[in-house]
Amino acid sequence: MSQRSTGHDSNYAIARIDLPDQLTHGWQVRLQRRSIKYAKFFSDSSFGGGQQAFENAVRYRDQLVLDLESESSGQVRICSRSSRNSSGVVGVSRISVTASTGSIYHFWQASWSPEPGKRCCVKFSIKRYGDNEAFELAVQARIEATNS
Fold this sequence. Notes:
Shape: elongated
Oligomer: single chain
Number of helices: 3
Number of domains: 2
Order of helices and strands: EEEHEEEHH
Structural class: alpha+beta
Mean pLDDT: 82
Radius of gyration: 22 Å
Largest sheet: 3 strands, antiparallel
Strand order of the largest sheet: 1-2-3
């Protein structure tokens, strides 16, 4: 399948809908970002056939993805605290490491995935920077890493 400007295959977020009993044939674009659902149907009859409907669906999807990415660029995603997230900021967590000597070191860590199957992280020592500054450095590192 061909790659589009979104970096996804041509059918990403697009599904074929054929319901002959209801005389419905076309392409459905469905995306969800931050709990908001986006959907639009491109009927074969309204767009002059299946191929034209598909091409319109792809253009709509690509523009929607670009719009959603530009709206969220530079924003830190805040989530509610859970046992899996000690900071309230996605990708930033407080880490404690016990050395072989028994000493315990505390860090704020920023982690991200620059590409599928690859993980990166950077740690900021609480002893060196203090709790608040180490946290702020981790948040800033995550923002810079995910925006590049």
